[in-house]
Amino acid sequence: MDVRLMAATPTDEERAAVDGVLGPPETGWTGGERAPLDGHVARGGREARGRRDLLLPALHALQAGVGWISEGGLTYVSERLTIPPAEAYGVASFYAMFSTEPRPRTVVHVCDDLACRVAGAGSVIEELIAEAGPERADCVVRSPCLGLCERAPAALVQTSGSGVENHVLAPATVEALRAAMLDEVEPRELVTMRPEQHRAPPRGEPSAPQTLGRREDLRLLRRIGVVDPSSLDDYRAGGGYEALRRAVELGPEGVIAELNDAKLLGRGGAAFPTGVKWEAVAKQPVRPHYFVGNADESEPGTFKDRVLMERDPFAVIESLTIAGLATGSERGFLYVRGEYPEATRALELAVAQARARGFLGDDVMGEGFAFDVEIRRGAGAYICGEETALFNSIEGKRGEPRNKPPFPVEQGLFGKPTGINNVETLVNVLEVLTLGGLEYARLGTPESTGTRLFCLSGSIRTPGVYEVEHGVTIRELLELAGGGPDGRRLRAVLLGGAAGTFVGPEDLDLPLTFEDARAAGTTLGSGVVMPFDDSVDLREIVLRIAAFFRDESCGQCVPCRVGTVRQEEALHRLVRDRPLGSRRQELSLIGDLGRVMRDASICGLGQLASNAVESAMERLHLFDDEGGR
Amino acid sequence: MFGAGGGTSSYEEVANTDLIVLWGSNARETHPIFFHHVLRGVHNGARLVVVDPRRTSSAEWADLWLGLDVGADIALSNTISREIVTNDLHNPTFVERATAGFEAYRDSVMEWTLERGERVTGVPGEAIRELAHAYAKADRAVICWTLGITEHHNAVDNVLALINLGLLTGHVGRFGSGLNPLRGQNNVQGGGDMGAIPNKLPGFQDVENDAAARERFERVWGRPIPPRYGWTLTKMFEAMERGELTAVYCIGENPASSEADAHRAKRLLAGLDTLIVQDIFLTKTAEMADVVLPAANSALESDGTVTNSERRVQRVRKALEPPGDARDDIWIIAQLARRLGYDWGDLTSTEAWEELRTLSPMHAGMSWLRLEELGGIQWPCPSEDHPGTLFLHARLWEEDPERRGDPAPFSVVVHEPPVDELTEEYPLRLTTGRRLDSYNTGVQTGGYSSPLRRGEMVDVSPEDAERLGIRDGEVVRVTSRRGSVEAPVRINRGLRAGLVFMTLHFPDQVETNVLTIDATDPKSGTAEFKATAVRIERIGVPDEAGATA
Q1: What gap in Å lies between CA A398 and CA A92, rounded to an integer?
Q2: DSSP code at position A402
Q3: pTM, whole model, 2 decimals?
Q4: Are B293 and B329 in contact (CB under 8 A)?
Q5: Digit-coded pLDDT (tens) for B373-425
Q6: B127–A40 CB contact, under 8 Å
């Protein structure tokens, strides 16, 4: 590789942080001391380049250990992995959780996204910034959705130093955040969800999972609040690993047949038949195959996968193992959102236990097949939820989506056939195998089988994750969560997250199925159902969504990079009642931008970036006149 | 190779092989276009091994770099051979059918144990073993080399040592397996093909031994051809020294700057009765000439062909009229011939090419029309219905002994260290080479700016710099047994203690070849540019070794 290193040298701390991930350097050519033998032999090439996927973990180590990624640290990582520093910098600067400038030891990321905004995040942030004063201004960072909407307002406390980990605070108070920001208290001490709370919370407390409705109807959430997420034995006592046993009996073709019988559709948003995807991977002659769990749950308003991972991590690992068996993959990756430290810890613990007990490894359950899972952390990039961007991120590159085709089942991770599903889809596989595919298909509607996890937050009395069969209406779901606050009038519901669409109060009887949503011109997306009442400034919500896409566009393709900016600008002009030309012209400009982004963007981010905005215009008529409606 | 002076493989094969060995070649910088083909191979999954005293930018791409001591190539090759043979990794079928002299060769390498190889080359035995096994076990493997092999006093033996490896393993004559010298200019290959070498007529037909060929040429040219080999450039300088050579007509060459031991070269050129230089620039040599003939630029202002490293003959088309009085080389030569009493008429490049096709069987099928249509043709191409030859020596794999032809001979080669010995007085090994953005003596590149170019520098290892107390950029004196130059130091991590590196790109600034030795290979006439013994002194600091000498 043509690598020209910078002159900057790493500090001992930076060296130690990187060596913690990569191991100590073996020769003078890879960052160690130069020895006489180094003058006569060097190894590298493919082997060194093959470790490129450790770039992100190494950058995480630098960020966590030192608090930022300095030139010296970056040079050292580049040398160790033979990556040109410019390229490594391109990666480091791509992700929001990495800083290439010196930063305070503790940085508080306060969510100002949709649900938190409704819950008063704005004033929390303002007060905190006032507390911080100008000299600590960089301690407070406004963050997109942290996936803690049921406990809004939420914050992520990012701390550096050895032995320190990141923590989330939700609901976050100004007092607690102030203490964390000033390093008066270790963030661990502030965590609102303590281990004992992994047990079912008392009824009525605003927390996931669903606390209303009949517990015996729960399937995906069955173990949550019942089974200790830190105990493999508890998981097994609760029926864990029975699905894997069944999968072994069925064999790969049998598992895929059950999935096809179950008509299981992916829950990540695209609703692709899971059995078809797995079969396509299994049939690829090229080896190896990989299977990836997409746990980069970043769609604003979505937190169901986090709840599954935090509170039922073994279910995620078991379902990935089944996927490995069925698709002929021996290596699995679970790409967890960087902003999910608690989920990451729960999963790491689960993987370690599963490995120790032979549920992962060279001979899973003594059944003669190999499978293991590596957990990879994202670092703050919504786009990495797009599957090919996620592959690039695991591979140590900027998380930019790839053109399709080739599709992941042909050329996915490391260019090999790859299956990828989001966490909820995976956990459904356990249900399919436990019930049997045909039995599973009896749940829900003929076209939308099974149950669905919905994330309720915003103007709702009991926010949380709710599991219902497909076919329940929006109204029924809202009622299940206790309805809206007293004395308030419902104005709109956001379905499917920022990439979804708004519906109005007149649409509340829409059954929540793939087919009904499609027919109504909306989407279930990632399962977000976020009601807004008349206390919420909806135009501000739409502006936040537009700002979100502008910020999260990876910038690779022009329609999205430019379109998201121009869309936001036009909305601001409308809100400020300063249209270029007439309001009608601005609205038609936004429509044009949406069409261009839909038609010409590489990936779903750009294709869907105008969805919510346009639905707000068309269904809610928010921008028809200067006052909104 | 085995009589044909060209690389056996095509670029396409380098992109589709399993192991690429760059031996004495920094192709990343010196053959950047060829290196693209190497990178295609690497991206397609080939392993890359680089053998070079320096850890060059090519070596940084390699899976394995063997940093042998300068001039230890035969030792390394023989050690690899022994490792292959003693582990039964050679190809007995190929060896038996297609080669000769295996037993003697095998016996000759038996003394080269890994231990001895390590001692002589400096490369850990384990790494030598790794290369030996990788090369022998590879389904397809190519070895490519350049001046790191040939700029030695035993250049031909070095080449033979590499050929031995190919014969031992059968890595020749099949798609993706071959032995390839990389050519330094777009038409070095073509120069040899056209007979611009002392012992061959066009098409590699031997001047002394091939009477039939000589006769064909005599018939067409209407003049007898002396049945004697001519002189190589090095031999010419010896003849000048003896007073036998007194007139030189020098076309497109700049020996006053490019020859080893430049002091001597200039002295001898100055002593000639007549020196005629035909060039596109007023080179150092041209400055000394009695007559300078301004020539057209062959790339832009001339019609003809060039032949690249994969033996592909390609058309060159005139795009510009040459400036001023500059003339096409063919025109100048024809005019000269006319003044000497041979009127060739208005000789055109087409006529010259058609004549060549009648005389050189390997070019016979290459009409300009076909060259145009096929985007060049790889020789040999004996007839107009022949597609050209992707790789050479496929015959060695023929079942039928008749078609297989003469076996390819192994050559017993003996390790000889460089002539210029390291002593206390001259403790550092200077090796010379080239950088990415400059070309030889800079005649063709010096006029163009480059953001990479820093002028001449002497590259020194961090260890030597520290020991000598030299800072990066400091100007030091480099002294060999023949002369002394001053140059700024560049500290280069790619060098180990005891090894220093210079180029010959900036003769006006630093005459590197004042230092080099003109010990030449008797067979190829190439001087040992790669191995000079030097010392480095800080300027103004008394030298201890010098003081005691």
Answers
A1: 8
A2: P
A3: 0.85
A4: no
A5: 999 999 999 999 999 999 989 999 999 999 999 999 999 999 999 999 999 99
A6: yes
B100 Cβ neighbours under 8 A, 6+ residues apart: B407, B408, B409, B410
By C-alpha distance, the chain A residue nearest B47 is: A46
Closest in B42, B57, B66 to A41, CB measured: B66
The DSSP code sequence of A204-265 is TSS-SS--SS-GGG-STTTTTTTS-TT-HHHHHHTTTTHHHHHHHHHHHHHHHHHHHHHT-B
| Closest residue to B63, CB basis, from A37, A40, A47 | A47
Contacts of B492 (CB under 8 A, 6+ apart): B54, B459, B460, B461, B501
List CB contacts (< 8 A) between A47 and chain B.
Answer: 63
Structure confidence at residue B542 (pLDDT): 54
Interface confidence, given as ipTM, is 0.84
Alpha helices in B138-254 (DSSP H): 147-150, 155-169, 188-193, 211-221, 233-242
**Does A29 touch chain B if contact means CB atoms closer than 8 Å?**
yes
Q: How much is the average pLDDT of B457-462?
A: 96
DSSP A319-333: HHHHHHHHHTEEEEE
Alpha-carbon gap: A381 to the closest alpha carbon of chain B (Å) = 29
| Residues on chain A touching B42 (C-beta within 8 angstroms) | 45-46
Identify the CA nearest to A622 among candidates A517, A523, A532. A532
| Confidence (pLDDT) at B263 | 87
Q: Is A41 on the interface with B (CB under 8 A)?
A: yes
Residues of chain A with pLDDT under 70: 187-188, 190-214, 626-629
| B125 contact A CB<8A | no
List of chain B residues whose C-beta atoms are within 8 Å of the C-beta of residue A41:
64-67, 123-124, 127
Phi, psi of B310 (to 5 degrees): -95, 25
CB pairs under 8 A between A and B: 62
Given an 8 Å threshold on Cβ–Cβ distance, is B65 in contact with A1? Answer: no
Q: Is B67 on the interface with A (CB under 8 A)?
A: yes
Q: Which residues does A452 contact at the CB level (< 8 Å), separation at least 6?
A: A267, A444, A467, A468, A469, A470, A512, A524, A527
Residue B51 zone, left/alpha/beta (φ > 0; ψ -120 to 50; rest): beta
- Closest partner CB to A42 (pick from B48, B59, B461): B59
- Collect all residues of chain A within an 8 Å Cβ-Cβ radius of residue B493: 34
Query: Does B427 touch chain A if contact means CB atoms closer than 8 Å?
Result: no
* Average confidence (pLDDT) over B154-181: 95
A419 phi/psi in degrees, rounded to 5: -95, 145
| pLDDT of res. A624 | 85
**Sheet holding B141-145: strands in order across?**
A41-43, B64-66, B47-51, B19-23, B141-145, B178-181
A29 CB neighbours in chain B (<8 A) are 55
Which residues in A524-548 are b (16+ Cβ under 10 Å) and which e?
Answer: bbbbbbbbbbeebebbebbbbbbbb
Q: Read off the pLDDT band of B5 (50, 70, 90).
A: low
**Residues B52/B65, Cβ–Cβ less than 8 Å:** yes
Contact A394, A53 (CB under 8 A): yes
Pick B67's closest partner by Cβ from A1, A34, A40.
A40
Query: Who's near B204: CB < 8 A, 6+ residues apart?
Result: B3, B4, B5, B192, B193, B362
pLDDT reported for residue A518 = 95
Rounded CA separation B470/B301 (Å): 48
Which of B55, B62, B122 minimises the CB distance to A45?
B62
For residue B496, give the chain A residue with the closest CA. Answer: A39
